## 1
Amino acid sequence: MSLLFHGGDLQTASIIYGRNPDDWLDLSTGINQYSYPIPPIAAAAWQRLPYLNPQLTDAAAGYYGQHHCLASSGSQPIIELLPAVLPKLGSQKPTWLPDIGYQEHKKAWSNDASIQTYDGLSSLNATQQINAALEQGKLGHLIIINPNNPTAERFGIDQLYQWSQRLAAHNGYVVIDEAFIDTHPIASVLTQRLADNMVVLRSVGKFFGLAGMRLGFTFAEAPILDQLSIKIGPWSVNGPAQMVAIAALEDEQWQAQMRQQLTTEQPLQLALWHKLMADKGATLAANHELFRSFVMPTELAHHLHQSAAKNGILLRPVDINSSTSLLRFGNIDLNQSDARKRCQTWLQQEFQ
Ligand SMILES: Cc1ncc(COP(=O)(O)O)c(C=O)c1O
């Protein structure tokens, strides 16, 4: 049986496991389960063509900072377009990206250019590998997922600026996917003036828990954004999404309270799984406010994924190599006794 390629695919999971799509505890994504409350949406937002609302641009500048910015229907379409928009640097200068990480980057770049991978599980190893490639003149563009999903590895802002300076000499870019940085906005490169050869991707789906709304922002120098904008075409962010995003990005009180809540809950979310995973011999590899991941033998990861699914809990396995995998757990709503009970039932069954 093939494993689901992306998290959150409840329809496919339902077909595989013969379960009603509404009857899942979906822990297979890192999307915040406490999503931003949807405000009332004016009828005009549905009826009119969705030209970009200047209020959305202002709200984005308030939340992300003053940078050249492009809104799109999620960061996914931009990930797919970047290889066609950034300079072609030839096979001697491959694009480097993490071996373990959001796989859509690798998929997009593999179609268009030669790629090399660095260690997605250790930013220390990755830094050495990236520096070595730079020394040898073998680094074209550099793709960083900060923090990485599913490993939660991070790189410091200074390091990212250093790499961007070195890449600028041959027209190389640093693409920084910050889809999961909203719990620590201070760690974002957007807190500083962006280097000309940086492209930063932000997703409104994760921290705000609004993945279905499809909204993301790209920050880069104007010519790059112009090319992306032409490729995504007009009206790429629908009117209702713009209305909801204006409210969410302007709502500093909700954002601060949510950061606090997720930080407070982080040890509780981890404690749900940690001891029992350790008993099984799995090691903790990632501890983000929105997900945690454990490394274990592939056989065990696939077994746990399947036995959880049979109990109506959807997890996300990611194969590292033929013998080792990682199992990622999203957050549960700690206030929902049904969710807790479902987890306990599975854990008791699995670990008795
Ligand atoms: C690291 C990362 N970047 C980008 C995306 C795409 O997100 P979206 O298109 O919803 O903004 C995802 C989705 O899971 C992700 O994990």
## 2
Amino acid sequence: MPEQKSLKAILFDLDDTLIDWGNVTQDWLAFENGFLGRVQIFIESQGYTLPFEPFADAFRTSNQLAWETGRRNFVAPHMGRLLVEAAETIGIPPGKLDATACLRAADRGIIEGTVAFPDAARVLGEIRAAGVRTAIVTNAPQPMWLRDYEMEYHGLMPYFPDCRLSAADVGYLKPHPAIFETALRCLGVKADEAVFVGDSLSADVVGAQGVGLAAVWHKPRPGESLLDGLVTPDATVTTLADLPAALDALFPNWRS
Ligand SMILES: [Mg+2]
């Protein structure tokens, strides 16, 4: 009888996997103008003149270009560097602004209407209690310290003490192997000892399976995906409450 593999770690996507964005009430333009305005005030406090509209336009142009490029080569956009680039595009001397200070000034805060999925804390507690390690692997363009505020707010931080990675930190977007491999190294586990849970077939499921991880597709809302039928997750759950049972099928001894 083949030796039973043991489950050592579960890697989670963040947005729409643990945090539900399905009922966001935030006016996105107002939100973006809010943080860009705070960055503008910060940069002007350094003794520069930075008119708001050209700065906001330059940021939106840089941001859009970075995501278009990132979708082709998987190089991750970095919001701090995009803020600096936008300011430099409209005349701030190169090399004078600090990306981290600009992100602090942005004070991005919590997106109105986001909530943790109702079963997230309970299921994460169950997983941790079984001795399984956990990691966050998100395609966020913000460094993880900025997303940590949201994880705290949503009560998720206690379940991820070891390893939280954003694409901005690693430099690559899922499905690029680098971000998954960085997470496995961070936890000290091999791909066949771990599972990835995420809501995106193209980023999470394809990327995780590409490096040899079993991939659970968390599909919180009905609807078609372009990749339906082309990608086969190792398991599919519509609620996190079903994740423990899905793990039973993949790693029968994971609870012991
Ligand atoms: Mg997601």
